[in-house]
Amino acid sequence: MTKLLVFSDLHLDTPFKWAPPGLARARRMALRTTLTRIMSLAEENDVDAILCAGDLYEHERFSPDTTAFLRQTFADSNRAVYLAPGNHDWYGPASLYRMADWTPNVHVFTEARFVPVDLIEGVTLWGAAHRAPANTDGFFENDFRVDRNGVNIALFHGSESAQLFYQESGKVPHAPFSAEQIEHSGLDHAFVGHFHTPRDAARHTYPGNPDPLTFGETGPRGAILATITPDGTVMCERHTVAASTVHDVSVDVTGATSSSDICAKAEAALQGLTGVARVTLHGDVAPEVDVRLSDLVGISSGLDAIVPRLGRIGVTYDLVSLAAEQTVRGQFVRDVQASTNLDENQRRRVLVTGLRALDGRTSELEVH
Protein backbone atom coordinates (compact mmCIF):
# COMPACT_ATOMS: atom_id res chain seq x y z
CA MET A 1 0.00 0.00 0.00
CA THR A 2 1.02 3.60 -0.64
CA LYS A 3 0.83 6.23 2.08
CA LEU A 4 0.64 9.94 1.27
CA LEU A 5 0.28 13.07 3.38
CA VAL A 6 -1.74 15.70 1.52
CA PHE A 7 -2.50 19.33 2.32
CA SER A 8 -3.38 22.56 0.52
CA ASP A 9 -4.20 26.23 0.96
CA LEU A 10 -1.77 27.07 3.76
CA HIS A 11 -1.38 30.63 2.39
CA LEU A 12 1.94 31.55 3.97
CA ASP A 13 2.39 35.34 4.20
CA THR A 14 -1.34 36.05 3.96
CA PRO A 15 -2.02 39.57 5.31
CA PHE A 16 -4.75 38.76 7.87
CA LYS A 17 -6.41 42.09 7.18
CA TRP A 18 -8.86 41.62 10.06
CA ALA A 19 -6.02 41.67 12.61
CA PRO A 20 -3.82 44.50 13.93
CA PRO A 21 -0.16 44.32 12.75
CA GLY A 22 1.26 42.49 15.76
CA LEU A 23 -1.45 39.84 15.75
CA ALA A 24 -1.26 39.47 11.96
CA ARG A 25 2.46 38.70 12.16
CA ALA A 26 1.86 36.19 14.95
CA ARG A 27 -0.78 34.48 12.82
CA ARG A 28 1.64 34.30 9.87
CA MET A 29 4.26 32.69 12.10
CA ALA A 30 1.61 30.22 13.29
CA LEU A 31 1.12 29.13 9.67
CA ARG A 32 4.79 28.22 9.52
CA THR A 33 4.42 26.16 12.67
CA THR A 34 1.50 24.37 11.03
CA LEU A 35 3.74 23.37 8.12
CA THR A 36 6.37 21.99 10.49
CA ARG A 37 3.61 19.96 12.15
CA ILE A 38 2.58 18.61 8.73
CA MET A 39 6.15 17.54 8.06
CA SER A 40 6.42 15.90 11.49
CA LEU A 41 3.18 14.03 10.86
CA ALA A 42 4.66 12.72 7.61
CA GLU A 43 7.69 11.38 9.48
CA GLU A 44 5.57 9.82 12.24
CA ASN A 45 3.48 7.92 9.69
CA ASP A 46 6.40 7.01 7.43
CA VAL A 47 4.60 8.23 4.30
CA ASP A 48 5.92 7.68 0.79
CA ALA A 49 5.41 11.30 -0.23
CA ILE A 50 4.05 14.69 0.84
CA LEU A 51 1.68 16.44 -1.57
CA CYS A 52 0.58 20.08 -1.63
CA ALA A 53 -2.38 20.97 -3.87
CA GLY A 54 -1.59 24.65 -4.25
CA ASP A 55 -1.74 28.03 -2.48
CA LEU A 56 1.21 27.11 -0.32
CA TYR A 57 2.07 30.82 -0.09
CA GLU A 58 0.88 34.22 -1.35
CA HIS A 59 2.77 35.21 -4.51
CA GLU A 60 2.31 38.97 -4.06
CA ARG A 61 3.59 38.99 -0.48
CA PHE A 62 6.24 36.30 -0.08
CA SER A 63 9.69 37.33 1.15
CA PRO A 64 13.21 35.88 0.83
CA ASP A 65 12.74 34.71 4.40
CA THR A 66 9.73 32.64 3.33
CA THR A 67 11.73 31.17 0.47
CA ALA A 68 14.51 30.16 2.84
CA PHE A 69 12.02 28.73 5.33
CA LEU A 70 10.31 26.53 2.75
CA ARG A 71 13.55 25.34 1.23
CA GLN A 72 14.97 24.30 4.59
CA THR A 73 11.72 22.79 5.85
CA PHE A 74 11.48 20.48 2.85
CA ALA A 75 15.22 19.80 2.81
CA ASP A 76 15.07 18.59 6.42
CA SER A 77 12.77 15.77 5.34
CA ASN A 78 13.89 12.64 3.56
CA ARG A 79 10.41 12.35 2.03
CA ALA A 80 9.56 13.19 -1.55
CA VAL A 81 7.62 16.47 -1.74
CA TYR A 82 5.35 17.28 -4.70
CA LEU A 83 4.02 20.82 -5.18
CA ALA A 84 1.22 21.79 -7.59
CA PRO A 85 1.03 25.62 -7.78
CA GLY A 86 -2.39 27.23 -7.44
CA ASN A 87 -3.79 30.64 -8.34
CA HIS A 88 -2.23 32.38 -5.30
CA ASP A 89 1.19 30.72 -5.69
CA TRP A 90 1.13 30.48 -9.48
CA TYR A 91 4.23 29.42 -11.35
CA GLY A 92 5.82 32.31 -13.23
CA PRO A 93 9.12 34.13 -13.82
CA ALA A 94 9.17 35.68 -10.33
CA SER A 95 7.71 32.67 -8.53
CA LEU A 96 9.17 31.47 -5.24
CA TYR A 97 9.16 28.07 -6.91
CA ARG A 98 11.75 29.36 -9.39
CA MET A 99 13.83 31.25 -6.85
CA ALA A 100 14.30 28.50 -4.28
CA ASP A 101 17.31 26.22 -4.60
CA TRP A 102 15.30 23.08 -3.94
CA THR A 103 16.90 19.88 -2.75
CA PRO A 104 16.42 16.79 -4.97
CA ASN A 105 13.47 15.49 -2.91
CA VAL A 106 11.29 18.43 -4.02
CA HIS A 107 9.37 18.30 -7.30
CA VAL A 108 7.41 21.31 -8.57
CA PHE A 109 4.86 20.80 -11.33
CA THR A 110 5.34 23.62 -13.82
CA GLU A 111 2.99 22.93 -16.73
CA ALA A 112 -0.65 24.03 -17.10
CA ARG A 113 -1.53 20.46 -18.02
CA PHE A 114 -1.29 17.12 -16.30
CA VAL A 115 2.26 15.76 -16.31
CA PRO A 116 2.99 12.26 -14.94
CA VAL A 117 5.69 11.27 -12.47
CA ASP A 118 6.36 7.85 -11.00
CA LEU A 119 5.43 8.12 -7.34
CA ILE A 120 6.41 4.57 -6.49
CA GLU A 121 6.31 1.40 -8.55
CA GLY A 122 2.79 0.96 -9.88
CA VAL A 123 1.57 4.40 -8.79
CA THR A 124 1.61 7.45 -11.09
CA LEU A 125 1.04 10.99 -9.86
CA TRP A 126 -0.37 13.44 -12.40
CA GLY A 127 0.27 17.07 -11.44
CA ALA A 128 -0.53 20.44 -13.02
CA ALA A 129 0.24 24.07 -12.26
CA HIS A 130 -1.44 27.44 -12.55
CA ARG A 131 0.82 29.68 -14.59
CA ALA A 132 -1.20 32.86 -14.00
CA PRO A 133 -3.25 34.24 -11.09
CA ALA A 134 -6.53 33.90 -13.00
CA ASN A 135 -8.22 32.49 -16.10
CA THR A 136 -6.63 29.05 -15.89
CA ASP A 137 -8.59 26.58 -17.99
CA GLY A 138 -9.69 23.26 -16.59
CA PHE A 139 -6.98 20.63 -16.68
CA PHE A 140 -9.46 18.05 -17.98
CA GLU A 141 -10.20 19.98 -21.15
CA ASN A 142 -9.32 18.37 -24.49
CA ASP A 143 -10.58 15.04 -23.14
CA PHE A 144 -7.59 14.27 -20.91
CA ARG A 145 -7.10 10.56 -20.18
CA VAL A 146 -4.42 8.65 -18.36
CA ASP A 147 -2.24 6.42 -20.50
CA ARG A 148 -0.56 4.32 -17.83
CA ASN A 149 -1.45 1.11 -16.07
CA GLY A 150 -1.52 0.74 -12.32
CA VAL A 151 -2.89 3.35 -9.91
CA ASN A 152 -3.25 6.91 -11.20
CA ILE A 153 -3.59 9.84 -8.79
CA ALA A 154 -3.94 13.57 -9.61
CA LEU A 155 -2.74 16.64 -7.71
CA PHE A 156 -3.96 20.09 -8.72
CA HIS A 157 -5.72 23.30 -7.70
CA GLY A 158 -9.20 23.76 -9.11
CA SER A 159 -12.93 24.31 -8.67
CA GLU A 160 -15.35 21.40 -8.70
CA SER A 161 -18.34 23.07 -10.31
CA ALA A 162 -21.07 21.35 -8.30
CA GLN A 163 -19.57 22.55 -4.99
CA LEU A 164 -18.72 26.14 -5.88
CA PHE A 165 -22.02 27.46 -4.53
CA TYR A 166 -21.42 25.87 -1.12
CA GLN A 167 -17.94 27.24 -0.62
CA GLU A 168 -16.93 30.52 1.00
CA SER A 169 -18.11 33.70 -0.69
CA GLY A 170 -15.88 35.26 -3.31
CA LYS A 171 -14.49 31.99 -4.62
CA VAL A 172 -13.78 32.24 -8.36
CA PRO A 173 -13.96 29.07 -10.50
CA HIS A 174 -10.25 28.67 -11.24
CA ALA A 175 -9.45 25.59 -13.37
CA PRO A 176 -13.04 24.30 -13.23
CA PHE A 177 -13.83 20.62 -13.48
CA SER A 178 -16.60 18.16 -12.72
CA ALA A 179 -16.50 14.96 -10.71
CA GLU A 180 -17.55 13.11 -13.84
CA GLN A 181 -14.42 14.29 -15.66
CA ILE A 182 -12.22 12.63 -13.06
CA GLU A 183 -13.88 9.29 -13.56
CA HIS A 184 -13.95 9.70 -17.36
CA SER A 185 -10.20 10.42 -17.39
CA GLY A 186 -9.32 7.09 -15.82
CA LEU A 187 -7.90 8.63 -12.65
CA ASP A 188 -8.46 6.61 -9.50
CA HIS A 189 -8.53 9.72 -7.30
CA ALA A 190 -7.65 13.43 -7.27
CA PHE A 191 -6.36 15.58 -4.41
CA VAL A 192 -7.49 19.13 -5.02
CA GLY A 193 -6.85 22.54 -3.50
CA HIS A 194 -8.70 25.87 -3.72
CA PHE A 195 -11.85 25.26 -1.65
CA HIS A 196 -11.16 25.97 2.00
CA THR A 197 -14.13 23.94 3.19
CA PRO A 198 -13.06 20.27 3.33
CA ARG A 199 -14.82 17.94 0.94
CA ASP A 200 -14.74 14.16 0.54
CA ALA A 201 -16.17 12.67 -2.63
CA ALA A 202 -15.93 9.29 -4.29
CA ARG A 203 -13.03 10.21 -6.57
CA HIS A 204 -11.69 13.50 -5.23
CA THR A 205 -10.77 15.11 -1.92
CA TYR A 206 -10.38 18.71 -0.82
CA PRO A 207 -8.22 18.83 2.34
CA GLY A 208 -9.36 22.38 3.13
CA ASN A 209 -7.02 24.96 4.64
CA PRO A 210 -5.16 23.35 7.57
CA ASP A 211 -5.00 26.46 9.78
CA PRO A 212 -7.88 28.96 10.01
CA LEU A 213 -7.35 32.09 7.94
CA THR A 214 -10.49 33.87 9.08
CA PHE A 215 -13.45 33.46 11.38
CA GLY A 216 -16.21 30.99 10.63
CA GLU A 217 -13.89 28.26 9.34
CA THR A 218 -15.15 25.37 11.40
CA GLY A 219 -15.36 21.62 11.08
CA PRO A 220 -12.69 18.94 10.62
CA ARG A 221 -9.78 20.19 8.55
CA GLY A 222 -6.05 19.64 8.44
CA ALA A 223 -3.63 17.35 6.66
CA ILE A 224 -4.89 14.14 5.09
CA LEU A 225 -3.20 10.82 5.62
CA ALA A 226 -4.19 8.91 2.49
CA THR A 227 -3.71 5.17 2.13
CA ILE A 228 -3.92 3.80 -1.40
CA THR A 229 -4.40 0.10 -2.07
CA PRO A 230 -3.05 -1.65 -5.19
CA ASP A 231 -6.54 -1.66 -6.74
CA GLY A 232 -6.74 2.15 -6.52
CA THR A 233 -8.96 2.41 -3.43
CA VAL A 234 -8.15 5.59 -1.46
CA MET A 235 -8.83 5.87 2.28
CA CYS A 236 -8.46 9.32 3.80
CA GLU A 237 -7.98 10.26 7.42
CA ARG A 238 -7.82 13.91 8.51
CA HIS A 239 -5.34 15.00 11.16
CA THR A 240 -5.51 18.31 12.99
CA VAL A 241 -2.27 20.24 12.53
CA ALA A 242 -3.32 23.85 13.17
CA ALA A 243 -1.01 25.85 15.39
CA SER A 244 -3.79 28.23 16.34
CA THR A 245 -7.53 28.38 16.86
CA VAL A 246 -10.13 31.01 16.08
CA HIS A 247 -13.59 31.33 17.57
CA ASP A 248 -16.76 33.20 16.68
CA VAL A 249 -18.51 34.17 19.90
CA SER A 250 -21.90 35.88 20.05
CA VAL A 251 -22.67 37.82 23.23
CA ASP A 252 -26.24 38.88 24.03
CA VAL A 253 -26.01 42.19 25.92
CA THR A 254 -29.75 42.50 26.48
CA GLY A 255 -30.36 43.72 30.00
CA ALA A 256 -26.85 45.10 30.50
CA THR A 257 -26.93 48.07 32.84
CA SER A 258 -23.50 49.51 32.07
CA SER A 259 -20.39 49.08 29.95
CA SER A 260 -18.86 47.06 32.79
CA ASP A 261 -21.84 44.71 32.63
CA ILE A 262 -21.22 44.21 28.89
CA CYS A 263 -17.57 43.35 29.58
CA ALA A 264 -18.62 40.85 32.23
CA LYS A 265 -21.02 39.14 29.83
CA ALA A 266 -18.30 38.91 27.19
CA GLU A 267 -15.74 37.59 29.65
CA ALA A 268 -18.13 34.85 30.76
CA ALA A 269 -18.75 33.83 27.14
CA LEU A 270 -15.00 33.58 26.48
CA GLN A 271 -14.23 31.48 29.53
CA GLY A 272 -11.95 28.56 28.72
CA LEU A 273 -11.18 29.60 25.12
CA THR A 274 -7.67 29.97 23.71
CA GLY A 275 -6.33 31.48 20.49
CA VAL A 276 -8.21 34.38 18.88
CA ALA A 277 -11.90 35.17 19.27
CA ARG A 278 -14.16 37.47 17.30
CA VAL A 279 -16.80 38.75 19.71
CA THR A 280 -20.08 40.00 18.25
CA LEU A 281 -22.32 42.04 20.56
CA HIS A 282 -26.06 41.97 19.99
CA GLY A 283 -29.26 42.69 21.89
CA ASP A 284 -31.19 45.62 23.33
CA VAL A 285 -29.66 48.07 25.79
CA ALA A 286 -30.93 51.01 27.76
CA PRO A 287 -30.03 54.44 26.37
CA GLU A 288 -27.61 55.21 29.18
CA VAL A 289 -25.39 52.20 28.45
CA ASP A 290 -22.12 53.28 26.80
CA VAL A 291 -21.30 50.57 24.25
CA ARG A 292 -17.66 50.73 23.19
CA LEU A 293 -15.85 47.96 21.37
CA SER A 294 -12.49 49.12 22.70
CA ASP A 295 -13.59 48.11 26.21
CA LEU A 296 -13.53 44.43 25.16
CA VAL A 297 -9.93 44.36 24.02
CA GLY A 298 -8.58 44.49 27.57
CA ILE A 299 -10.94 42.07 29.31
CA SER A 300 -9.33 39.25 31.23
CA SER A 301 -9.18 35.97 29.31
CA GLY A 302 -6.79 33.27 28.19
CA LEU A 303 -6.97 34.41 24.58
CA ASP A 304 -4.14 35.75 22.47
CA ALA A 305 -6.42 38.44 21.07
CA ILE A 306 -10.04 39.57 20.91
CA VAL A 307 -11.53 41.08 17.75
CA PRO A 308 -14.77 42.84 18.75
CA ARG A 309 -17.58 43.95 16.46
CA LEU A 310 -21.16 45.16 16.72
CA GLY A 311 -24.03 43.00 15.62
CA ARG A 312 -27.64 44.10 15.88
CA ILE A 313 -27.85 46.46 18.84
CA GLY A 314 -31.16 48.06 19.74
CA VAL A 315 -31.73 50.95 22.14
CA THR A 316 -34.81 50.74 24.37
CA TYR A 317 -36.14 54.29 24.66
CA ASP A 318 -39.57 54.81 26.25
CA LEU A 319 -40.92 56.83 23.34
CA VAL A 320 -44.38 57.26 24.86
CA SER A 321 -42.98 58.99 27.94
CA LEU A 322 -40.53 61.03 25.90
CA ALA A 323 -43.27 62.25 23.54
CA ALA A 324 -45.17 63.60 26.54
CA GLU A 325 -42.25 65.73 27.72
CA GLN A 326 -42.44 69.49 27.16
CA THR A 327 -38.77 69.58 26.26
CA VAL A 328 -36.59 69.73 23.18
CA ARG A 329 -36.37 65.94 23.32
CA GLY A 330 -40.13 65.65 23.53
CA GLN A 331 -40.67 67.98 20.58
CA PHE A 332 -38.09 66.06 18.53
CA VAL A 333 -39.91 62.76 19.20
CA ARG A 334 -43.29 64.25 18.32
CA ASP A 335 -41.97 65.75 15.08
CA VAL A 336 -40.35 62.50 13.94
CA GLN A 337 -43.41 60.45 14.85
CA ALA A 338 -45.60 62.81 12.86
CA SER A 339 -43.41 62.64 9.76
CA THR A 340 -44.99 60.91 6.76
CA ASN A 341 -41.72 60.67 4.80
CA LEU A 342 -40.23 57.83 6.87
CA ASP A 343 -41.04 54.13 7.08
CA GLU A 344 -40.98 52.46 10.50
CA ASN A 345 -37.33 51.35 10.31
CA GLN A 346 -36.17 54.76 9.17
CA ARG A 347 -38.26 56.46 11.87
CA ARG A 348 -36.67 54.31 14.57
CA ARG A 349 -33.16 55.00 13.34
CA VAL A 350 -33.78 58.74 13.21
CA LEU A 351 -35.33 58.71 16.69
CA VAL A 352 -32.55 56.70 18.30
CA THR A 353 -29.75 58.59 16.56
CA GLY A 354 -31.27 61.96 17.41
CA LEU A 355 -32.03 61.08 21.03
CA ARG A 356 -28.51 59.80 21.60
CA ALA A 357 -27.12 63.01 20.14
CA LEU A 358 -29.39 65.10 22.37
CA ASP A 359 -28.19 63.05 25.34
CA GLY A 360 -24.57 63.69 24.35
CA ARG A 361 -23.86 60.03 23.67
CA THR A 362 -20.71 59.46 21.60
CA SER A 363 -20.29 55.67 21.77
CA GLU A 364 -19.58 53.50 18.72
CA LEU A 365 -23.13 52.17 18.76
CA GLU A 366 -24.60 51.48 15.35
CA VAL A 367 -28.35 52.02 15.44
CA HIS A 368 -30.66 49.22 14.24
UniProtKB/TrEMBL annotation:
Organism: Cellulomonas flavigena (strain ATCC 482 / DSM 20109 / BCRC 11376 / JCM 18109 / NBRC 3775 / NCIMB 8073 / NRS 134)
Gene Ontology molecular-function annotations: hydrolase activity
Lineage: Bacteria, Bacillati, Actinomycetota, Actinomycetes, Micrococcales
Membrane-spanning intervals of the chain: none
Gene3D superfamilies, sorted: 3.60.21.10
InterPro entries (UniProt xref): Calcineurin-like_PHP, DNA_Repair-Maintenance_Comp, Metallo-depent_PP-like
Domain of life: Bacteria
Protein's name in the database: Metallophosphoesterase
Domain Calcineurin-like phosphoesterase: 3-198
Pfam families named in the record: Metallophos
